[in-house]
Design goal:
With about 425 residues, the chain is an alpha/beta fold. The protein has 2 domains: about 70 residues, SH3 type barrels; about 250 residues, Alpha-Beta Horseshoe (Leucine-rich repeat, LRR (right-handed beta-alpha superhelix)), CATH 3.80.10. About 20% of the residues lie in helices and about 20% in strands. The strands form 5 sheets. Strands 11-13-14-15-16-17-18-19-20-21-22 form an 11-stranded mixed β-sheet, with helices on one face. The chain has a 5-stranded antiparallel β-sheet with strand order 6-3-2-1-7, with no helix packed on it. A two-stranded antiparallel ribbon has the order 4-5. Helix 7 crosses helix 8. The radius of gyration is 28 Å and the shape is elongated.
């Protein structure tokens, strides 16, 4: 890496704390050059880029202690290393190999022979890299990849790669690596910070649209990637089937209709938005017409209104709402309009839905369900649930209010006679 100060946007590690350089320059009242760093752990810093009343830079987060200043040559500071260096350290056996082998130098036309120590082991190590299919290099301080074709020549068969907690600064820098891995289908980038634009004076990188052609699974958890950037990223991942983008403080805009055809992703089937800031059920079908699984656990969804149209989540078969503060059973009723094909639902850890009849009521309200909270629903389960639900309504809900209970009229027509009295259920 360079001997001078890094550019703004570079990633660094200091005693295993990762950060992004947001400022390079002087600080009032001091001499020399400082690096203004936004730390991945916002508890690590001392301020938010404003020191002694002077604003030097802004952070990607609004945490008051996400940033601090350090010297470019402070002890323990690392600007990272290359992909192949990290790969060799983990996957090449470096134990002693004293065996000798006579090698004829090709440039000598057979006239010069030398003794090579450990050559068989070198060949074996190189072959081992070529055989690698699943590679995990999380936390390896990788900041750049070798230019083509160096990676392609050493490890061309990688299909699954974990680069979580590394120092790659941008998607173009990542593309230099992935463009050399034609079989790559699974990529984990959790807890990284990848900008869409390259760093200043970066080496040329392959075009993004041609660098991720085979990728089908991508993990971007805890990357602080905003929603507009996610849509931009998806535009150059044409084969992507599964995307995880949890723990990103996402709050989606409304409406979500694509602003251009490039934002429609035809193949995405599973989207995990666990532990974000979503306050409403997102209407994702216009963006992801093939979406069948959606994880919205541990968000801020307190109510689900009637669906604005039958196609808002029309292809969805599995939905997780566990850990959301749903405030009424009407939200569960309304899922039928949002997700007419829903087969699996998760509603664990929702205080309102924590009664003894929760499972029965949810099954009765949603006739297409075949599993609830991971447990299958048998035909007998459904019959018992619907009878219990009807009995509760007829015994504990005034007649004028019964029509507001989901499927009441439908079940009255199809179920006769009603079972005996049941105990009451908590408020609807």
């Amino acid at each position: 890496m360079p001997d001078t100060s890094p550019p703004v946007g570079a990633r660094i590690a200091l005693n295993n704390s990762l950060g992004t350089v947001r400022y390079v320059g002087p600080v009032d009242g001091t001499h020399g050059t400082w690096l203004g760093v936004e730390w991945d752990d916002p508890q690590r810093g001392k301020h938010d880029g404003c020191k002694d009343g002077t604003r030097y830079f802004r952070c990607a987060t609004d945490h008051p202690t996400a940033a601090s200043f350090i010297r470019p040559a402070v002890k323990g500071l690392s600007y990272g290393r290359s992909f192949l260096a990290a790969l060799a350290e983990k996957y090449i056996d470096d134990s002693p190999a004293p065996s000798k082998e006579v090698v004829t130098l090709g440039s000598s036309h057979g006239l010069i022979q030398v003794e090579a120590v450990g050559l068989a082991k070198v060949r074996s190590n190189l072959a081992d890299l070529a055989r690698l299919v699943e590679v995990s290099l999380d936390g390896a301080h990788i900041a750049w990849a070798e230019q083509p074709p160096q990676v392609a020549e050493r490890c061309p068969n990688i299909r699954g790669l974990d680069l979580s907690l590394n120092l790659l600064p941008s998607w173009p820098a990542l593309a230099t690596l992935t463009a050399q891995l034609p079989h790559l289908t699974r990529l984990a980038l959790n807890s990284t910070r990848l900008a869409l634009s390259p760093l200043p004076a970066s080496p040329p990188s392959p075009p993004l649209p041609t660098s991720f052609q085979s990728l089908t699974e991508l993990q971007l958890n805890a990357t602080l990637t905003p929603w507009p950037s996610l849509l931009t990223i998806l535009a150059f991942l044409p084969s992507l089937h599964t995307l995880e983008a949890g723990y990103n403080s996402l709050s989606l805009p409304s409406p979500l209709s694509p602003s251009c055809p490039a934002h429609v992703h035809a193949n995405l089937a599973l989207l995990n938005l666990d532990t974000n800031l979503l306050a409403a059920l997102p209407a994702l079908s216009p963006l992801f017409p093939a979406l069948t699984r959606l994880v919205l656990a541990s968000n801020r969804i307190a109510a689900i209104p009637p669906a604005p149209s039958a196609a808002e989540l029309g292809t969805l078969k599995h939905l997780s709402l566990s850990g959301n503060p749903l405030a009424d059973w009407a939200s569960v009723d309304n899922l039928r309009g949002w997700c007419p094909a829903l087969e699996g639902l998760a509603i664990r850890a929702i205080p309102l839905l924590d009664g003894s009849y929760t499972r029965a009521f949810a099954i009765a309200k949603l006739p297409t369900l075949t599993s609830l909270d991971g447990a299958p629903i048998t035909p007998k389960d459904r019959l018992d649930a619907e009878l219990l639900y009807l009995s509760h309504i007829t015994q504990h809900v005034p007649a004028p209010d019964r029509a507001s209970w989901g499927r009441y009229a439908e079940l009255v027509e199809s179920t006769s006679p009603l079972p005996p009295l049941f105990a009451s259920e908590p408020r609807r």
